[in-house]
Amino acid sequence: MKHPRKAWLPDLLWTGERFESDIAIVCDDKGKIVRLANERSLDCDIVRLRGRAVLPGLVNGHSHAFQRVIRGRTEYRSAERDSFWTWREMMYAAATRLSPDQVFTASRMAFYEMALSGITSVGEFHYLHNAPDGSRYEDPNLLAKQVIAAAREVGIRITMLRVAYARSGFNVVPNPRQLRFIENDPQAFLRAHESLTKDAAFDVCVKTGIAPHSVRAVPLDYLRILEEFAAEHGTLVHMHVAEQKAELDACRHEYGTTPVELLAREGLLNERFTGVHAVHITEGESRHLARAKATVCACPTTERNLGDGVVPADRLFEDEVPISLGTDSQTQIDLLEDARELEYHLRLEKQERAVLAGKRDSGIDSPARRLFECTTLAGARSIGHNVGLLEPGREADFFSIDLSDPSIAGWTIDSLLANIVFGLNRTAIRDVVVGGNQIVSDGLHPLGEEIIHDFVELQRNLWL
Ligand SMILES: [Zn+2]
User: Fold this and answer.
1) What residues contact residue 215 under an 8 Å CB cut-off, 6+ apart?
2) Mean pLDDT over all residues of the chain?
3) I want to staple 181 with a disulfide (CB 3.0 to 4.6 A). Which of 29, 71, 165, 250 is the partner?
4) What is the rounded CA–CA span in Å between residue 132 and residue 443?
5) Active site residue 328
6) Which residues, chain by chain, have CB under 5 Å from ion ligand 1?
């Protein structure tokens, strides 16, 4: 057995149930947690995290990293009614221009910001494949590899969910602004995915999955071929579902039913499936997801920014559908804000409080724990990394917070998690560790200055 390499000893540690003191995380030289131990029993190097509480690293279930370049550039009203669809035009303006190097620079900025906010793993829903004129690069994974390299340089884990995108929509003329996304041939798509998966086998921090973009962009025949492959290989499948009402209308027009109903009817929902958004779903559709043991990834900071609607998290929880969270459009990168918004949107809608509190024996419960599990365990399950809880056998991914930060001052041991979930400033996050490697120390990442400098340069060139 390998000798434990290092132990991390904070003032408090979140066990998944409560905060406890005098517990160190002991990890081996492969970056896995081998045990949780008190100080007296430690026989290796100790990193003391004084005045800090440690929690499992956050898992960002849904990201389009390059969209970081349009933050702040879509916040105005144009002549027509502004909506998701007008925002999408601005996103295309960026997507059609970025060079491979610029894809790296933009992605690295997004991942750097994620690392500073305690995110240690990301599911990247990646749909830029071709050159700007629509021609294939010699390596169809050129841009996917740029994104993976960006995540690894920052130091976070990534699941590359390579997107299948076959068409603009049912009976819709091809949109030249989508040329970089299109891969008409499902076999070519699967070959590219397999090649990426082979490369990923060399790095424990990189995993892969497939992501048929949506029912709109991938016709049923194509979907069936992808699912047949995924079932055979145990591949994770992510898909945008029911984000916009117009998407539901188009699906009804083509198939006579809604996206989730269609996927259920076709047997395409299962425990490997994550439906991203699931804003406009019925009670019946929630039950379909539950029966199939599928999961949902909500992205509330993006959904509020785009005016998508409210994820019916109460109904999904009632049916025991796990909900992970994603930063999606990168309009804000702060997964704890997504967690609190999941609850707050429902409060506004229902004019009630603590809507997502679970039913505990005491009859009194805070939604904080459930929301925190959305940012950790549910995300880990959805993107397939062995993280989300600080326990032996899992990867040593965690972050620390400054217990004297003004945003949580006055906490008690029982209210600390609720203070964090509902009130923590992102800047209170001090240390971030991925697989036993410290990537953020006292709020700083060693590449921070360079990453910001290159990104500012990119923005200047991109929006001339
Ligand atoms: Zn998305």
Assistant:
1) 223, 239, 241, 247, 251, 255, 259, 262, 263
2) 94
3) 165
4) 37
5) yes
6) 328
